[in-house]
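Hi all, long-time lurker, first post. I run a small reading group and we've been trying to get comfortable going from sequence to structure in the token notation. Rather than ask abstract questions, I figured I'd post a concrete chain and ask someone more experienced to write out its structure so we can walk through it together at our next meeting. Sequence below, copied exactly:
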Amino acid sequence: MLWILSTLIAAAGQTARNAMQSSLTATLGTLGATQVRFVYGLPFALLFLALVTTTAGTGVPAPTPAFLRFTAAGAIAQIAATALLLAAMRLRAFSVATAFTKTEALQVALFGLVFLGDTLTPVRVAAIALATSGVLLVAAKPGERWSAQSLRPVVLGTASGGLFALAAVGFRGGILALGDGPYFLRATTTLVWSLAMQSLLLGAWLCVFDRAALLNSFVVWRQSALAGFMGAFASQFWFLGFALTAAANVRTLGLVEVLFAQAVSRRVFGQRVSAREALGMTVVTAGVALLLVAS
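-- Answer (accepted) --
Happy to help. Here is the structure in token form:
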């Protein structure tokens, strides 16, 4: 049951990281704020790896071809998902933009079944469906006239959720491909490899196409370093969860992030939540509670 504690810590850490990245978007742009979690997160992940290898009393497991394929796929999907999430946050309230991405719970269950053979009981499927319906209730705006502009955050958020789902499945696949070593060592090894890949890919892209955003992140290095730490911290616990149970279980429990995001929206950004959005968050909570009972 350690996956439950790991997931709750990860969701809280991710909410803090998203808020920090969202505030950096105005200064660095979408891609510039995206790369902060990777470039500045990698040193902290290496520190985590040093700590867990000392605890395990063994070396870092060697990468296998399957590990590299799964991890690279997850790393690339996560870069795109983070960029789309930050773009959605620029169009809607922080908590609502976060809610759009949480259709991920259903998508990750499907991808996990297809790519990893992860199976779920009927009760857990019902929990995922209930929690996701709450997310959709939060995201919908009754009476809104649909237009290209109003649909944009819906499309961005849903696409972000799909890519986050692919990333979760890729990272779990990478962890499983490392064999039977200590779960925390396999999780942290996968985290370091993924952040290294992401730092290299996105850093190279920014050097060529948006060097100003990369250089500006060094100007605001204090904020960037803090966001990077929170990103690595949250990812460490997400990966621990992926090592312990199916990605769908982790991502469904992770829907509590919608509740955390609402608190941040109100206290930090001064954004109010409607009664309908509050009802949706209650439904999300019920779905998460059902998942925990089933577990």
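A couple of things your group might point at:
The first helix runs from residue 2 to 39.
The chain has one domain: 2-294.
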